């Protein structure tokens, strides 16, 4: 049935205009009524379906542990989270690390550094290093997705920390994994990237350290982050594969690795929703769809 | 049910502790900054005395 | 027994809360000190510039 093109067309269409989402939204609402929330089931839901935008931030906060599973603790814990952020940002203001016109993303970085004991002395302030830049890129994207600054800080912090702790060991292997799946999907493209030397200088940092922050527009990015936050870093590989496949014709015509790098680092912002949809399908095809519960 | 109560309490306590730990880190950062400022002040004062 | 567990959890949370409040008073005091130090430093610096 999955091969029925008519059906595929229809479901793609419904997904686009939001009808298919009605059933999913209902089942998510049922899950969200649980007290305590079943974090496992919420992860599975989020792996399988796109999160309805009205619930996205709430589900992310639960999955990242910013809110505990018990709903009747949410008010208290939210108050703690607000106070913690205000305490630290207030101290940073007193220490003159930040002031009224400091961009929020820089404030978030300083709060994060202070909390993780990495705040440099004020007399030794240096320009952001590679890791700071990764943080800032994720922060800028999160800022586009989340309105409330306190929520935004906590989501960045927990996203970055979870990503490091959970996937830190896997990240270095993702380029190899990309090569593997690209060989399955388009051996000719892979061969071209290899012979031109571009394969070794693809924008891996942008893709696998910043999780496409600054690469995909936020509306597409958040659908990728749904999967990352609910427990998959493999999805990043499939997004990369689909980006390469989408621009195959252009890439086949390029032989300069720097040209390839620059093009992919400043990728056109059209059709990114389709790229992400195809990447999610491909990810389900190779890695299976989580079936239990929901 | 008992486990449930315990889990809930644990969630709240963890958030509260994280808020407390942040205050401790703030204290450390403030102390470092103060120390630096005091030594700067001393240098300035001694050089002011020397030049006077 | 359940009441017991609840009471214990409440006690732990309160202890955490009061530790937080104590630490908070410390950081507020340090921030006040910092503010004073900054203004002293600025006075000294401006007088040093003036006398130079």
TrEMBL record, chain A:
Xref: InterPro entries: Rab-GAP-TBC_dom, Rab-GAP_TBC_sf, TBC1D7, TBC1D7_dom2
Gene Ontology terms for molecular function: GTPase activator activity
Segments passing through the bilayer: none
Cellular component terms per the entry's GO annotation: cytoplasmic vesicle; cytosol; lysosomal membrane
Keywords on record: Cytoplasm, Cytoplasmic vesicle, GTPase activation, Lysosome, Membrane
Taxonomy, superkingdom: Eukaryota
PROSITE patterns in the record: TBC_RABGAP
Places the protein is found: Cytoplasm, Cytosol; Cytoplasmic vesicle; Lysosome membrane
Pfam families: RabGAP-TBC
GO biological process terms on file: negative regulation of TOR signaling
Rab-GAP TBC domain span: 50-232
General function of this protein: Non-catalytic component of the TSC-TBC complex, a multiprotein complex that acts as a negative regulator of the canonical mTORC1 complex, an evolutionarily conserved central nutrient sensor that stimulates anabolic reactions and macromolecule biosynthesis to promote cellular biomass generation and growth. The TSC-TBC complex acts as a GTPase-activating protein (GAP) for the small GTPase RHEB, a direct activator of the protein kinase activity of mTORC1.
PANTHER family documented for this protein: TBC1 DOMAIN FAMILY MEMBER 7
Protein's UniProt name: TBC1 domain family member 7
Organism, as annotated: Labeo rohita (Indian major carp)
């Amino acid at each position: 049935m999955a091969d029925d093109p008519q059906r595929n067309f229809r479901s793609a269409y419904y997904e686009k205009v939001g009808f298919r989402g009605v059933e999913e939204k209902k089942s998510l609402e049922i899950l969200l009524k649980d007290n305590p929330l079943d974090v496992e089931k919420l992860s599975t839901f989020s792996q399988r379906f796109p999160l309805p935008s009205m619930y996205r931030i709430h589900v992310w906060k639960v999955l990242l542990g910013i809110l505990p599973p018990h709903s009747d603790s949410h008010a208290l814990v939210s108050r703690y989270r607000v106070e913690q952020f205000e305490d630290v940002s207030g101290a940073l203001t007193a220490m003159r690390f930040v002031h009224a016109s400091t961009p929020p993303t820089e404030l978030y970085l300083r709060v994060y550094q202070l909390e993780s004991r990495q705040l440099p002395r004020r007399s030794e302030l240096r320009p952001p290093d590679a890791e700071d830049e990764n943080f800032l890129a994720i922060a800028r994207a999160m800022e586009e997705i989340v309105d409330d600054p306190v929520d935004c800080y906590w989501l960045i912090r927990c996203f970055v920390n979870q990503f490091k702790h959970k996937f830190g060991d896997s990240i270095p292997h993702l380029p190899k994994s990309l090569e593997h799946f690209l060989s399955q999907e388009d051996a000719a493209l892979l061969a071209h990237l290899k012979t031109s030397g571009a394969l070794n200088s693809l924008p891996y940092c942008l893709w696998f350290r910043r999780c496409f922050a600054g690469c995909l527009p936020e509306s597409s990015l958040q659908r990728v982050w749904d999967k990352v936050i609910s427990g998959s870093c493999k999805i990043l590989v499939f997004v990369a594969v689909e980006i390469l496949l989408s621009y195959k014709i252009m890439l086949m015509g390029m032989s300069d690795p720097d040209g390839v790098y620059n093009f992919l680092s400043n990728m056109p912002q059209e059709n990114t929703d389709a790229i992400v949809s195809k990447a999610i399908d491909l990810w389900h095809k190779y890695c299976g769809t989580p079936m239990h519960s929901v | 049910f008992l486990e449930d109560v315990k889990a809930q309490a644990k969630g709240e306590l963890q958030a509260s502790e994280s808020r407390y730990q942040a205050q401790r880190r703030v204290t450390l950062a403030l102390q470092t900054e103060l120390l630096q400022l005091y030594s700067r002040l001393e240098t300035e004062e001694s050089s002011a005395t020397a030049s006077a």
